[in-house]
Amino acid sequence: MKIKILWALLALVIVGLIAVPWITSYFYIFIFTEILILGLFAASFNLIFGYTGMLSFGHAAFFGIGSYAMALVLIHLEWPFVVGLLLSMGVSALLALIIGFFCVRLNEVYFAMLTLAFGMMVFAIAYQWRSVTNGSDGLAGFSLGSFGLGLDLTLANPAVYYHVVLAIVVIASAVLYLVCRSSFGMILRAIRQNPERVSFAGLNVRTYRLVAFVIAGSFAGLAGGLMAPFLRVASPELLHWSMSAEPILMAILGGTGYFLGPFVGSAVFVLLETWITSFTESWMLVLGIILALMVIFFRKGLLGTVLDWWMEIKK
Amino acid sequence: MTNPILTILNLTKRFGGNAAVSSINLDVMRKETMAIIGPNGAGKTTFYNMVSGRMQPSEGSITLDGKDITGLPPHKISKLGISRSFQINNIFPEMTVQENVEVVLSAYHGHSRKLFNIASRNTGIQQEAVELLKRLGVDSLKDRRAEVISYGDKRLLEIAMVLATRPKLVLLDEPTAGMTPEETRRTTKLIKSLADSGDYTFLITEHDMDVVFDLADRILVMHRGEKLFAGTPAEVKSHPEVRRAYLGEEEDEMTEETGA
Amino acid sequence: MSGIGSALLNSLDIGLLLFIIAVGLNIVFGVLNIINFAHGALYMLGAYLAFTLINIVGMPFWAALLLAPLGVAILAVLIDRFLLRHIYSRDIADSLLLTFALLLIINESVRMIWGSGIQVVQPPQLLAGSMDIMGSSIPTYSLFVIVMGLALLAGLWFLFNRTRIGRIMRAAALDRDMAEVLCINTRLVVTGVFAFGAWLAAVGGVIAAPMRALDPGMGDKIIIESFIVVVIGGLGSFPGALLGAIILGLIHGVGGRYFPEVNMLLPFLGMALVLLFKPNGIMGKGAAA
């Protein structure tokens, strides 16, 4: 019964999200677009952190490369938007396979260090490879052409783009959710709690971790592919570890124990950032303080704390 | 029936300069229950770790049903038919008791590769999990979170998870450790019925000598990493070196008194 | 001095400085089993504190070398007492997250206090200029860095192998529970080790200050370098940290001179290469998952 209430609430939220362009200003259309894209980014991170127990500090590498892939496609090839997204996913999945291969073999401490290091390596490449990435200036000046799939959409219109992002994020999240609910997802959760036990049940834990890492990377790349046209630029900042910090904070903020936690975290994060940067430049300081407080006192996150409490009462 | 299921030759494990396990030679017969006894530090767990793949031997070989499994990683050895429990509880604490078993069953049946099924609707696996829990007598706890059930029940859950992979050879590491007398009795009865069913070969390490003599067809006595003696319970009881090293000096005094 | 000669000297310079910084990271890991993501930020704080003491308060370099690391060590004690103690008993991920949060906080605080621009610290009169060695001209400060690096190396070796404190730290590193049973006040050891690691980082910062321009991004650069050092050399290994630092120093010194276009990438490639063949690092153990 309780679960049905939650699903109904979710449906209401989605309906509300659909209605956003008609009930708010342009400003909030931009805010919600950002919330949705970063929410997907954070949810992809949570697949490897909340579910599988791997703390990566380099997840932005996949997000950023997705952005660059989309930008390059739009600049050089002028392919339809949907194809660009598929390419973003493919490229980031490949990168995740390479980086993951080096990292999943090692314990959590090494994993954290290495993902940070490899992430910064990708950043260094983007920063220096002027001929391809235009270095620190980033790639800009691309325009959105057709959507693809025979649909005629004016992607340049922010409201239209918002709905496209909403649709894609909802579909992608549904797919990701299915993966989490599957037997494979159950194994990932088991790996987080007791990886040794899983290997004694006959499974090669490394393989499962790598697959999770690649799936997470590809969805991060999808989010990145959605981000580039939104920002109108693909720049190295999207690859920096400070960008990798964002999904981490969002997941902790919203709650790593529930699938929708990162989305809640994304909403709170974006709204907080918008508010705080309006009167100070030291957003990173606030971010750090919030992360510290959450980790120490509210480890379950906002949604996590609420849902845990709600599931416990009147059982 | 006469060829051994497990053959161990010259098995040795060294840490630095010390040999935790030294030149063990052993045959374990199909469907028998063999108990391994020895004081703490005798090398029993290290021995288990090598047989189950958790540690690499320094020397020697392990053969399961004719197949050389020396040095293979745990997941491969599990697939070949060896399953083990641990001295310290090794379960999935945040999942329910039933889910704990489902995880292992899912791995065993290959469902773990399915990315798009809904695990909670997998009735086949759920039924099998409940049956397994029933067999161990803990099915009433199936919806409880695993970390909150009693210590004794956790041990039983662990045995259920061990059996879920339908192993040929079951390694139980001190299954009754920390249990109340009642729980010990229940568990011993359970293991006995599983052994009698003829489906499994058991290797059990134990400190409780009553349990050992109740269950074992044969006993391996280890001392300081070496195999001291292997034989039937009667042979072990009367073996002078075993009595001296393991069963205690009291025995020596007794034999002195009676002049035996 | 010949091209290769000065490249090698440069490497030794960089390498020993990296060693000073990375060994602190290694020591904290060895005893506390956590990687302090804020380690680079503490290095940076040491440099900036020295800047303030030297350029604004007007102290001599030697006073700053004494006081700045002490200040950072005190801050580390506060961090441990008020923040880290909450999560030591928890999952290791929580420690990593908290030190990461500290990184953000310290980074931004430095930017707020000292500004985003570049600051410069002059080396002390004694160490400015260059010396004539074997017919070549070598910056005196480079020699100073090398001497300091070797002195710290010797000091640390002595500390760990010949003193009671060192033995206690090694015991706590091997088995925290056992150490507690033996009535070693592990709470104190933990705080002490964390502060010691911070002190080492800050010493590195003060020594590095006259060599490099100070900017709020210097902490980030150095933490990545430290990670590469401990990955190459092996986490938890003292000689490994030295080996890793020397190798990275060589990559920078030689690579920077002869392969400037890919200079930024070389350390990462070196790290990836080591990982392929020796996932534990050259001298490390137990890194496998």
Spell out the key features of this protein:
heterotrimer, A: 315 residues, mainly alpha, two-stranded antiparallel ribbon, 14 helices, 2 strands, B: 260 residues, alpha/beta, Rossmann fold, four-stranded antiparallel sheet, 10 helices, 24% strand, disordered C terminus
**Proportion of residues in β-strands of chain C:** under 5%
Question: Topology as H/E string of chain C?
Answer: HHHHEEHHHHHHH
| Highest-level CATH class of the domain at 1-70 and 168-173 and 207-260 in chain B | Alpha Beta
In spatial order, strands of the major sheet of chain B run 6-7-8-3-9-10
The N- to C-terminal Cα distance of chain B equals: 38 Å
Largest sheet of chain B: 6 strands, mixed
Per CATH, the superfamily of the domain at 1-70 and 168-173 and 207-260 in chain B is P-loop containing nucleotide triphosphate hydrolases
Oligomeric state of this protein: heterotrimer
Rg from alpha-carbon coordinates of chain B: 19 Å
Strand content of chain B: 15-25%
Shape call of chain B: globular
Overall shape of chain C: it is: globular
How many helical stretches of chain C?
A: 11
Distance between the termini of chain C: 47 Å
Mean pLDDT across residues of chain C: 85
Work out the radius of gyration of chain C: 19 Å
Secondary-structure-based class of chain B equals alpha/beta
- Enumerate the spans of chain B where pLDDT stays under 50 for 5 or more consecutive residues: 249-260
